[in-house]
Amino acid sequence: MPASVRAIRDAVAARSVSAVEVCRAALDRIGAVDGALHAFLRVDAEAALGRAAEIDADADLRRKPLAGVPVALKDNLCTRGLATTAASRVLEGYDPPYDATVVGRLREAGAVIVGKTNCDEFAMGSSTENSAYGLTRNPWALDRTPGGSSGGSAAAVAARAVPLALGSDTGGSIRQPAALCGVVGFNPSYGRVSRYGLIAFASSLDQIGPIAASVGDAATCMNVIAGPDPRDSTCAPAAPEDFSAALTGEVKGVRIGVPRALVAQGSDPEVISAFDAAVATLAELGARIVDVALPHSAHAIAVYYLLTTAEASSNLARYDGVRYGHRAETATLAEMYERTRGAGFGLEVKRRVILGTYVLSAGYYDAYYVKAQQVRSLIRRDYEMAFEQVDAIALPTSPTPAFPLGERTSDPIRMYLADVFTVGANLAGLPAVSVPCGFSGALPLGLQLVGPAMHDAMVLGIADAYERVTPWSSRAPAIPPR
Ligand code: GLN
Predict the structure, then answer these.
(1) Number of structural domains found in the chain
(2) Which of the residues 74, 131, 313, 434 is marked catalytic?
(3) Which residues in the chain come in under a pLDDT of 70?
């Protein structure tokens, strides 16, 4: 059975394998591994096999760029006819009347949507432990987190259950789980991919992007999902680049900035040595390594958690029991709101709604919300100044490898610190990819490359050149049955 996105598509187009066979193989693999992992919240085998049969029967569909490719979707992406919960009780049983734009584009491109993946509730978290429907395990070590919040998508790809999944990234939720699961994750520039139909968390940062086993497969997906959308006014009107065409394997003369002071902050020694080796590999390929400073990044976590809680408190006000999902039946309207939200939201979501309401409250708005916006501008300016000297910036994706399940659930600040290297790109709206760069024992590590806004293809190009000369992306975990 062909394994990569490209190989599946070509085999289906050439009819050397049928989309139905590919779909069956994915469903079998999910059946074999998901008891141990719980990467999926919902698998729709019947719809998937039905769509695969349609593709097999239609010569036009078989030539599409994702013909017959099984895809898993993070459960905060709206899918028509397939429940969408964002891993929250408050959306239990919610059946969206429409597809997210990216979902529609995947379907048109011939992809076969097999199911919805587990995540932190409303994408708030770094470990997938904040799901209302149980945690997901890391395929490389079942007692560890797959990362989060798109942990189910990353675990499903790492376990080779699907070759491609979508996640969403507000502060690292595509890149960090990709790094912790040994796969590739890409957070596009803000505005490059439509968010219509993405359940909003923090709208000034949220992005949708691919998780795949290789940079090439992530680029193929970007060619399908990127581009203007009249339904999302924040989506850039310019036509996207050809992401696959940018993967030339060439990085000679490319200037890569390394913010040493930031990297040293709180990283495990194994993370630093794998990162140094990755930078050395890029230098051997002909890249020029340059020291850069991102002085305001020291405040990135604080700024991120002020702004995202503020935006979340506003975005989540709509879950009141009137229109969506769970409703507590009570005598009065006020009581219905209270009980619906009280029972429907989990602890982390409540923590963030309360924090965000405080940040936006009359007496504290200037001290917290306005101040955080000002520091966000400084963080963005640091990146802009760095990009006057370099083409891209290299960082570890995560300061540690996958941590043990349960280790940080009672210590939110410690959990938040997992995002120290990823939130900067979101605050500045920049494209950033995580590509596997080695192991700490049995646990994978990720190299992150961040580029200037709308230079998504270049960032993918550097990651691809690195991937071609290193063995890390081709390794897959052996998952014990359970
Ligand atoms: N871990 C970060 C948070 O908890 C990022 C989440 C995300 O990118 N969706 O907010």
Answers:
(1) 1
(2) 74
(3) 481-482
